[in-house]
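Try it yourself: sequence plus hexanoyl-coenzyme A, in.
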Amino acid sequence: MIDHKELIAELLALRQRIREGEHGERVEPQHKRGKLSARERLDLLLDEGTFQEIDAYRLHRQSGFGLEEKRIPGDGVVAGFGKINGRVVCVYSQDFTVLGGSFSEVQGQKVSKVIDLALDAGVPIIGIMDSVGARIQEGVYSLAAYSELFWRNTQASGVVPQISVMVGPCAGGSVYSPGLTDFIIMTEGISQMFVTGPKVIEAVTREHVDKQTLGSAQVHGTRSGVAHFVAADERQAFALTRQLLSYLPSNYAEMPPATEPKDDPWRQDETLDTIVPTDPTEAYDMHQVIERIFDLGSFLPVHQRFATNAIVGFARLHGQVVGVIANQPAVKAGVLDIDSADKIARFIRFCDAFNVPLISLIDTPGFMPGVMQEHGGIIRHGAKIVYAYSEATVPKIAVILRKAYGGAYIVMSSKYIRTDLVFAWPTAEIAVMGAEGAVNILYARELKAAEDPQAEREKYIAQYRQKFGRPYYAAASGHIDEILVPHETRPRLIAALELLKNKRAQTRPKKHGNIPL
Ligand code: HXC
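Structure, out:
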C-alpha cells in the first residue's frame, strides 16, 4: 500500500516536472526570441509568491498531425489568480513554447474558467498574450474555444476590468479577444496584432506590405488606436499593468481605490493664471494645466500617442481617482475629429462603467471641417462623445478654459447633458462660433459696402468679443455655474468632487441604448 508520504512526494515531483518543463527546455527558446517565459511574466506582474495556479495538469485529448507526442501538462497556457499591490486578480499567460501557445480546446477551457472565477469573485482579469492563434490541428474545437472566450469577454465587459498585455504575436480572429477588453498594452519589438497577415494582404490587395510595421505596437499606439498603452519592453508592460490597476476598482460595484493624499489640497499654482494666452490663435500645452491641477505626478495618460488633439487619462485629486478628458490646444488647436471622438467616448464609457468621476478641461474650436472628416463619418463618431457624456451617471465636472464653440460646447460636458458643475476661467469664450467666422456671416453686406472693410471688420469683431469673448454672458444666464480664478481650480475641483461623492443617478429602464458605433 502506498503511504501518504509517497502520495505527496509523487504530487510534488509532478508539480516540479511541470514547472521545470518550462524552466528547463521551454525557457531557453523564449529567451532566444528575446521574450520572457509565461511564468517569468507572471512573476513580474504579480506580488511575489502570490500566484495560485489552477488546471496545471490539463492535457489535450486531440490526435493526428503528431499531436499525440505533444500532450504537455497545462497545454499552452498558465492560468490562475494572484495579487497585484495586495488586491486579487485572475490571470492567464499564454505559453508560446507549447505549440506556439496556439489556442486549443483545453486552453479555451482554462481561460474560460479563470474568467468565470473573476466574474463570480468580482476581480479584474488580465490576459498575457503570446500565441500563434487557433490551433490548426484541432479544427473546429479551437474555433469553438475562441468563441467561448469572445462570449465571456463580452459578458465580463462592464462587470470587471479586463486588461490584455500583448507580448507576442496575435493574429487572425484571435485579435478579437484583446479587442473586446478594456485596455490593450502592447510591447515594442515583440508584439504584433493583425487580422490578416502580410502574405494574404499582398495576395488579395496586391499592395506592398511592410512586415515590420504591420500590426506593430507603434502603429496601433499612434494610428489605429487599438493599443491604449505602448511599453518599451516586457518589464515596462507589466509595471504599467500594475500602475493602471491602481486606478481601477475590482468590479463595477466598487469605488476606485483612494490613496492617502500626499499633495496639498490647497495648492494654488499661480502660473495657471497666465497659462492660457489671451490671443485666441496662440497655442499652449494642456499637459501643463493637468500637471498643475491634479495630485503631483498622478496623471496616467491613456492613448497617449493616438489622436493627440485630445488627452484622456486617470489622475488623482486629493487621493481620489478621476478620469481626465481634455482638449489639447497644442495639437490642431484642440479640434475634435473622428479619432479624438472615439478616444474620448470610449474613455468616458469605461469611467462610467467603473465609477470613476469625470473632469473635463475644455478648449476646442469645434469639430474639424473637411471632406475627409465628413465622408469619414464625423457625424457618427462625434455623436459618440455626446452619447457617452449624456449616458454617464458618475459625477461630471467641467472647466472651460478658453474656446467652447457651437456643437463642441454642447458635447464637451455642458450643463445640458447633465454635467453637475460647469466652471469657466476668465479667458473662456462660449459662443456659437469664433469671432471672425461670425462677423463674416452676420455683417457680410456691411463689410462689402464699407470704405475700409478691414477697420469695419475689426470693429465688429471687437463688439462680438465684448459679448462672447468673456464668460460673463454665460454666467449671467446660469449656463455656467461659476467663474474661477485659474489658480483656484484645484481646491474648487476637490470641493466639487467631495460634494458629488455619493451622487446616485438613475437611468431610464431599457434593455440597452444604441450608441452610434
Ligand atoms: C498550431 C502552430 C500554429 C497554429 C504556428 N504553430 N502556428 N501550431 N496552430 N496556428 C507552431 C509552429 O509549427 C511552431 O511549432 C510553433 O507554433 C511556433 O511557430 P513559428 O512559426 O515557428 O513561430 P514564429 O517564427 O515566431 O512565427 C510566429 C508567427 C507564425 C508569425 C505567429 O507562426 C505565423 O504567421 N503563424 C500564423 C499566424 C496566423 O495567421 N494565425 C491565425 C490563425 S487563424 P514548433 O513545434 O516548430 O515549435 C486564427 C483564427 C481564430 O487564429 C479565429 C477565432 C474565431
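One thing you can check immediately is this: The domain at 270-428+470-500 is CATH 3.90.226.10 (2-enoyl-CoA Hydratase; Chain A, domain 1).
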